[in-house]
Amino acid sequence: MTDSSHTLGKSVLGTGALQIPKLFNVEGWVAIVTGGGTGLGLITAAALAANGAKVYITGRRLEPLEQAAKSAAPQDGKGQIIPIQADASNKEGILKVREFIQAREKWVNVLINNHGVSLEHAMIDEVEQTPEALSKEMFENETFDHWLDAYRINTASYYFTSFAFLPLLAAAKTVGNFPEAGNILNLGSVSGITVTSQRGQFSYNANKAATISLSHQLAAEFARRGLNIRVNVVCPGYFPSGMSPISDEFAGNNTTNEFRQKWGTPFGRAGNAVDYAQCIFSLIANQYVTGAELVIDGGWLLVQGFGKIV
Hints:
Layout: H1 20-23, E1 30-34, H2 39-50, E2 54-59, H3 62-71, E3 80-85, H4 91-102, E4 110-113, H5 131-140, H6 144-164, H7 166-174, E5 183-187, H8 202-224, E6 231-236, H9 257-263, H10 273-285, E7 293-296, H11 300-303
Parallel strand pairs: 1-2, 1-4, 2-3, 4-5, 5-6, 6-7
Helix pairs in contact: 2-10, 4-6, 6-8
Family: Belongs to the short-chain dehydrogenases/reductases (SDR) family.
Protein name: Short-chain dehydrogenase
GO molecular function, one term: oxidoreductase activity
């Protein structure tokens, strides 16, 4: 640490480096956004492309990817969105993406592991609150496959994708001559931090907690080995998406008591595209942040221990 009043920033003062376009400059970057055809992945891909990045988006279904690439294509022609149909929940799909990109790019500046799944779950609040009734609901209506499928997609696949692209991420500095190697951003959730099951979604909350732990471990191991590859995790609260029942009407800037009461969010609204894009850029552009988990939830976690729990 140093005395910031004397030394910090002297080398950049007056150079324009502190202007917003330079603070978050991703022009010329190569980015990968898994699950980038819908929801938060599409917001991420659109924001990157709008600011001059070449963005590869992946997903299991080609039609949403092609629609996304068309609808979110930047108007100025600087950035691009390129769809790749592949299933990131298995090694074959991950290798397909890597081979596709390796044939076209020499490096990757950011890998955003965004794909995920939220499966139906037993409802702990909708049965008689006795040991017998709870045992029957939560044991008989859940399966090991349900737990393992969610973990494979939401956590294990992030591990395999991260290591598959390690050489291309490292090449951003060694080959692309960027100031740093590529970085990784994983999609967590406030569900991986809260101590509640949110009405019974034990599996999802547990594997999102595992995703956060995985991100910390990757960040630590890469830092110890001097790879210069940062790993962070973003933990959203309630946003409109394919995995959420929340409609776009609640994602504006108008707050409502209805949303505040039903969804337990003090700010009285869901998050929107601008909120999320600002969050993403703050993590991928800051070269001094690794191993961080950034919560963006309108204050939900701050009060989730009080009042209505969702």
